[in-house]
Write a structure and sequence with these properties.
Layout (H helix, E strand, L loop, with lengths): L7 E8 L9 E8 L4 E5 L6 H8 L7 E6 L2 E2 L5 H9 L1 E5 L10 H9 L7 H14 L15 H13 L5 E5 L7 H18 L2 E5 L11 E6 L2 E3 L5
Parallel strand pairs: 3-8, 3-9, 6-7, 7-8
Antiparallel strand pairs: 1-2, 1-4, 4-5, 9-10
C-alpha cells in the first residue's frame, strides 16, 4: 500500500454473534489515515470493543468491507488475519503481562514473531523501549513488583517495540488513577508520533479526549462522528 492510502477502511460493516439475530455492529463506516489518533467513545455494550477486534484481525466479519494495512479481512483466510495481527500492536485495560516473565521477557515475546531477530537483538530492543517509557531501572522486575501505571507502561512498550503501523487500545486507562492514566496516554501519543503509527483507542475516559486527532461515538452498534447533544 502507498503512503496516501488509508490504514483502516471500514464500509457498511455488520456483525452478529453466533446464535443472535440482533447485530452488534450496524452499517459501520470508518477510515483511519497515517498517524491519526482516533478515540472511540460510547456506552458499554455498544460494540466498540467488537469493532476493535475485527479491525485487529482477532475476530472474523462476513458482511461489509474491512481493509486494514492493505489487506481485505472480510471472508479472508486465517493467514491474512495473522498478517494484519503481526503488523499491529495491542494495549489492553489490564495489561495482559505474563506474571512469570520479567519486563524484558514480556516485551521480547512480541519480537519472537520475527524469526530474523536473534535473542541478543530482541533483548536490546526491549531494553531500549523500556528506557523510552521511563523504566530503565526495571528490566528484571516481574509484573507483581510494578505499580499499575508501570505495568501499563510495559504494555505500551510491548505494543510499540515491533514498530507496528497500527495500535489498537481497549480502555488502556480504565484501571489507572488520573495521573498515571494521563502519563501513559501522553507517552503512547509521543512514541506513536515518532513512529508515524496510527492509533484507534476505545475509552470511557473523557479526561484524555484532548489527545485525539478526532473523536467518534458509538451507540447501539451505530458509529457517529460526534456524541449527540
Amino acid at each position: 500500500m502507498t503512503e496516501n492510502q488509508s490504514i483502516v477502511e471500514v464500509e457498511n460493516l455488520y456483525f452478529s454473534h453466533p446464535g443472535q439475530e440482533r447485530p452488534v455492529l450496524r452499517g459501520i463506516t470508518l477510515s483511519l489515515q497515517h498517524g491519526e489518533i482516533v478515540l472511540m467513545t460510547g456506552p458499554s455494550g455498544s460494540g466498540k470493543s467488537t469493532l476493535l477486534t475485527i479491525v485487529g484481525g482477532l475476530r472474523h466479519a462476513r458482511v461489509g468491507r474491512v481493509r486494514v494495512l492493505g489487506e481485505d479481512l472480510v471472508g479472508s483466510p486465517a493467514t491474512t488475519l495473522l498478517k494484519v495481527r503481526r503488523q499491529s500492536g495491542y494495549i489492553f485495560q489490564y495489561h495482559n503481562l505474563l506474571e512469570s516473565l520479567t519486563t524484558v521477557q514480556n516485551i521480547c515475546l512480541t519480537l519472537e514473531l520475527d524469526g530474523s531477530l536473534g535473542e541478543e537483538t530482541r533483548h536490546a530492543m526491549a531494553r531500549k523501549m523500556l528506557d523510552g517509557v521511563g523504566l530503565s531501572a526495571h528490566y528484571d522486575k516481574y509484573p507483581h513488583q510494578l505499580s499499575g501505571g508501570q505495568r501499563q507502561r510495559v504494555s505500551i512498550a510491548r505494543a510499540l517495540v515491533g514498530r507496528p503501523r497500527l495500535i489498537l487500545a481497549d480502555e488502556p486507562t480504565a484501571s489507572l488513577d488520573k495521573k498515571s492514566g494521563q502519563e501513559c496516554v501522553e507517552l503512547l501519543k509521543n512514541l506513536a508520533q515518532e513512529q508515524n503509527t496510527t492509533i484507534l483507542l476505545v475509552t470511557h475516559d473523557y479526561r484524555i479526549l484532548d489527545m485525539a486527532t478526532r473523536v467518534v461515538y458509538m451507540e447501539d452498534g451505530v458509529l457517529q462522528t460526534e456524541k449527540p447533544q
